[in-house]
Amino acid sequence: MLEITDIHTYYGNIQALRGVSLRIGAGEIVTLIGANGAGKTTTLMSISGVTPPKRGTVSFLGQDVTRLSTERIVSLGITQVPEGRMIFPRLTVKENLLMGGYLRRDKAGIRADEEKVYGLFPVLFERRTQMGGTLSGGEQQMLAIGRALLARPKLLLLDEPSLGLAPLVVENIFEIIKQINADGVTVLLVEQNAQMALHIAHRAYVLETGRITLEGAARDLLNDPKVRSAYLGLD
Ligand code: ATP
Question: What is the domain extent for residue 205?
Fold first, then answer.
């Protein structure tokens, strides 16, 4: 579904990605793990068109999307849930959700997807008239994911959904990510919580200072001595 080939991405003179290649098959949950500053967020931004790579290609469903605008990329079916959620604090929960569908014209479809999101996250239904800024961190993360689903993505890019959340809330969110995937959405999950990410992912890539250093089935990486000591704090 997605194929990234040898991308190099820069912020001015600073090179953040040094030849990243990865592929994601339809229906998979793939996780990208790595330390602070390894380039995980930059990889997502390179896919979504926010910081396009200087070299290399991003291809989605067989189409080269490397130089397309973010809007075009969203309309093709890639939606990113940014780190830190970025919800609109002074809009209601419902208004925040509907912002996710701003490129769509199919009112009935939008309505149906809104209901689906309330089914996944009943707390968002209860709080639909409340301002986004008054939600707890976990609820804001749910809202950010719900908003992304309103764009009807084929591929969902999740940046650190567990950040700053209590363990039980993280478990709940990861269960829902599994459910979203089971409903047919392919997922690329960036996480510092490697333990949780490797438990729900099918496959994983390890990113170190702008390069992929390891890849494989998630369950193999859970048993890999290097991953265990560097990312899981075990052995
Ligand atoms: P984290 O988990 O801390 O978010 P990350 O793996 O997502 O880390 P990136 O945010 O992709 O890492 O950053 C990769 C590198 O690019 C880092 O060295 C970072 O300092 C640098 N970088 C990121 N954003 C910018 C920016 N806007 N301007 C300059 N350098 C940046």
Answer: 1-77+186-235
Give yes or no for residue 138 CB within 6 A of ligand 1.
Answer: no
> Is the shortest distance between the CB of 38 and ligand 1 below 6 Å?
yes
- Whether 181 is in a domain gets the answer no
- CA 140 to CA 155: how far, in whole Å? 21
- The number of domains in the chain is 1
9: in domain? yes
Look up the ipTM and state it: 0.92
Is 136 within the bounds of a domain? no
pLDDT in tens, 49-72: 999 999 999 999 999 999 999 999
CA-nearest of 145, 157, 151 to 105 is: 151
CB contact at 8 A, 132 and 93: yes
